[in-house]
Specification:
Blueprint: E1 3-5, H1 11-21, H2 26-29, H3 32-44, E2 48-55, E3 58-66, H4 69-79, H5 81-93, H6 97-108, E4 115-122, H7 131-145, E5 150-156, H8 160-169, E6 172-180, E7 183-191, H9 195-202
Parallel strand pairs: 4-5
Antiparallel strand pairs: 1-2, 2-3, 3-4, 5-7, 6-7
The structure holds coenzyme A.
């Protein structure tokens, strides 16, 4: 599957795919204007990047990543103060603040890497064809090229396809966050200096 680096003008299509394929995610509830602004900022940022898969002139999938989480969010908040305030409000209302706080506590304690695979989604009609795997492999190459030693990704424990893709790429489960009873998220981490992980990705 041919992949390319996301461009600014992909932001709306990425936001639309995110809304469709990640309907339960916090960002989705913040609305399209937020997501388009967020992805545009991410694509423009020197400490973030995204890749897309295309077919028949439409977006089939994307993966969005941040190399330095803290600097990235600080910059985003400075640039889009009102949008950042909406995130905070929606997190509080949705009770997601606990999970966000827990994740940021891990990150600030140095247990989790600053580099993160933020979102990955593939159009329903293109699933099971290796697009998710290819995007994951490509973003890990990019992280390595940018000198990231370790990378994290968070996904719902019930999300079997995502768990499969991440474990096969070499990620290992590092933390389990119970947000609400029955709603569990796993945080996976990959060490890019690990030769075994690198070999697995080359397969
Ligand atoms: C996760 C996701 C990106 C995977 O994309 P994809 O292009 O279908 O992935 P691939 O085709 O590369 O591989 C999927 C793997 O999951 C497996 N899989 C698919 N459905 C599965 C299921 N219900 N249970 C277990 N494994 C499953 C596939 O068999 C495949 O593994 P295999 O190659 O060993 O057979 C896609 O399912 C998606 O967009 N989901 C919604 C958004 C999401 O959850 N994103 C991740 C959280 S950020």
């Amino acid at each position: 599957m041919p992949l390319r680096r996301a461009r600014r003008e992909d932001s709306a299509a990425i936001a639309a795919l995110h809304r469709l394929e990640l309907p339960g995610a916090l960002f989705t509830r913040l609305g399209d204007a937020f997501m388009v602004a967020f992805y545009r900022y991410l694509i423009d940022s020197p400490i973030a990047f995204a890749f897309v898969a295309e077919g028949e002139g439409r977006l089939l999938g994307f993966a969005a990543c941040v190399v330095r989480w803290r600097g990235f969010y600080r910059g985003f908040m400075r640039r889009h103060l009102w949008l950042a305030a909406r995130v905070a409000l929606a997190s509080l209302r949705g009770g997601r603040w606990r999970r966000l706080l827990e994740v940021s506590r891990y990150v600030t304690a140095g247990d989790l890497p600053d580099a993160e695979l933020l979102s990955l989604a593939v159009d329903r009609r293109a699933r099971g064809m290796g697009v998710g795997r290819d995007l994951t492999r490509r973003v890990l190459e990019e992280f390595r090229a940018r000198g990231a030693g370790r990378v994290r990704v968070t996904s719902a424990e019930a999300n079997a396809p995502a768990t499969r893709v991440y474990l096969d790429a070499g990620f290992q489960k590092q933390a389990r966050l119970e947000m609400h009873p029955g709603e569990v998220a796993n945080v996976f981490v990959i060490s890019l200096n690990n030769k075994e992980a690198a070999l697995r990705q080359e397969r």
